[in-house]
Amino acid sequence: MFKLPELPYAQDALEPYISQKTLSYHYGKHHKAYIDNLNGLLEAEDGAKFKGMNVEEIVAKSSGKIFNNAAQAYNHTFYWYCMKPVAEDEVNEPSPQLKELLESKFGGVEEFKHKFTEVAKTHFGSGWAWLLKKQDGSIEIVGMHDADTPLMNGNTPLLALDVWEHAYYLDYQNSRPDYIEAFWKVVNWGFVESRVNGEELASLMEQV
Ligand code: MN3
């Protein structure tokens, strides 16, 4: 049985950019539902062969409903780490090392944010904007539909932005661009850097 992972901060910690209300639904209802559904599916006949695997393996090997719920369980866990509480007077920017990387790949931090924002903003329908590292070491910004995730292709996720409407509707209604702007205020550059450096993440989701 997968557990709903703890949020890495309090539900009101991202205010005023992401409200407590949004997090209570997004984490407490949507994310929880993916995990409950996944646990239910693993108890059913089709799920038996995935029991005991970690979530990353299930995502890589499954399809259909099991994939959708496992990938969404994983993607949300990853997404929570992509944000952090930031004080109003705090300068939230990448470290010099990460800055250098973003400069070399995208021409600068602002250029990177602009490109990532464009992918997130123009993604049609539900899905995710990702910064990912491919197996050949190259770094790309990719929009993916629904539950799709870099893990499917053996790539390493570095940064995720949920662009499903449930991620922003309570705070920003239909204005996805306002939500994306808010995301940059609380983006967790340190987490992105740890992923770039290949710091091993133990399986993101614990089982009991
Ligand atoms: Mn979501």
Task: Describe, in plain words, how this protein is organized in 3D.
With 208 residues, the protein is mostly helical. It folds into 2 domains: 20-81, Helix Hairpins, CATH 1.10.287.990; 96-196, Iron/manganese superoxide dismutase, C-terminal domain (minor pseudopilin epsh fold). The chain is built from 8 helices and 3 strands. The protein has helices spanning 20-43, 55-61, 64-81, 96-106, 109-122, 169-172, 176-186, 189-196; strands spanning 127-133, 139-145, 156-162. A 3-stranded antiparallel beta sheet has the order 2-1-3, sandwiched between helices. It starts with 19 loop residues before the first helix and ends in a 12-residue tail after the last helix.
Give structural attributes.
three-stranded antiparallel sheet, binds manganese (III) ion, 10% strand, 2 domains, minor pseudopilin epsh fold, Helix Hairpins, 208 residues, mainly alpha
